[in-house]
Specification:
The chain is of the alpha/beta class and 281 residues long. Helices cover 38% and strands 27% of the residues. It folds into 2 domains: 69 residues, Arc Repressor Mutant, subunit A (Orthogonal Bundle), CATH 1.10.10; 202 residues, Rossmann fold, CATH 3.40.50. Strands 6-5-9-10-11-12 form a 6-stranded mixed β-sheet, with helices on both faces. Strands 1-2 form a two-stranded antiparallel sheet. It is globular and about 65 Å long. It starts with 5 loop residues before the first helix and ends with a helix. Keywords: DNA-binding, Transcription, Transcription regulation.
């Protein structure tokens, strides 16, 4: 790569870090990339670190030693998260969202790349101190959010499905009880999607009683892997029995009055857990 002026180097260095989150990058790589001394690269990283932290857009973690380097961890400010989620609550309260059976129309929200990207960064902020190897979700509506989270944590996504796809090879399948309908259903995951001993973060768009998420937790057990966290965009609070105890929700749906088309939505338990998760090492 050609020799950069410092201003150009700072721009390219920042861009590289943002596009490679949670990856330990040796200083020698940047020194060779920009044909610059390590001391100059260290000074550049100091400037970027100060800006990231002052704007609360990320952290730069430096690891000393021969095998060390620098790692960018995406974050978001509490004010930004709160403003976005309050706006989301307002959108979800739109009475035109009410569908027969008390369901909500959410495809415009799930299909909004900017919003899903922001929510993905917020989940990545919360789980930044967790060792996550893969994001797991259920097809199909959870996929956009799962990929958004995965992009900020720099890990792959594995997709659990109800139907078998020949292109995915051999499967591991389990039966589970749907929490809302109480019906026995089947979910499957390709054997090649998840390595034994993986740390799995489950992400989904909506949770009612939690039967689907409970099924995914059991499926992870079949792979002799570990669930390190569960995050949902919307949780329904008006359920008789919750099958999942530990989860993080961005918003909480308290009531859907189909007769009057009244929807009650509030912030979920995200902020209750944010401080605790940030303090965990």
């Amino acid at each position: 790569m050609k020799k950069f002026r410092r201003s150009g180097r700072l721009v390219d260095l920042t861009n590289y870090l943002i596009n490679n989150p949670h990856q330990l990058i040796p200083l020698t790589y940047f020194a060779e990339r920009y044909d610059s001394a390590k001391s100059s690269i260290s000074e550049d990283l100091g400037i970027i670190k100060e800006m990231f932290e002052s704007q609360e857009t990320g952290l730069l973690v430096t690891v000393a030693g021969a095998s060390g380097g620098v790692k960018y961890i995406p974050t978001a400010s509490v004010d930004e998260i709160e403003a976005t989620l309050l706006d989301l609550c307002t959108k979800l309260k739109d009475p035109n969202r009410v569908l027969p059976g008390g369901y909500l129309y959410m495809m415009d929200i799930i299909g909004n790349p900017k919003l899903m990207n922001d929510i993905g960064r917020y989940f990545a902020t919360l789980f930044a101190n967790k060792k996550v190897d893969v994001i797991m979700t259920m097809a199909t509506k959870g996929i956009p959010l799962a990929y958004a989270v995965a992009s900020y944590m720099n890990v792959p996504v594995c997709i659990v499905r109800h139907e078998h796809r020949i292109t995915e090879g051999s499967l591991v399948s389990i039966n589970y009880v749907s929490g809302s309908t109480k019906r026995i259903q089947t979910m499957s995951l390709a054997k090649r999607s998840l390595q034994e001993g993986s740390n799995v973060l489950i992400i989904d768009d909506f949770m009612k009683a939690g039967g689907t998420i409970k099924g995914m937790i059991n499926l992870v057990d079949e792979f002799q892997s570990n669930v390190v966290g569960t995050g949902v965009l919307v949780e329904a609070d008006h359920v008789d029995e919750r099958l999942v105890d530990k989860y993080i929700s961005m918003t909480r749906l308290s009531e859907v009055n189909t007769k009057d088309k009244l929807i009650t939505v509030e912030l979920g338990n995200f902020f209750e857990n944010l401080k605790q998760y940030r303090e965990e090492k």
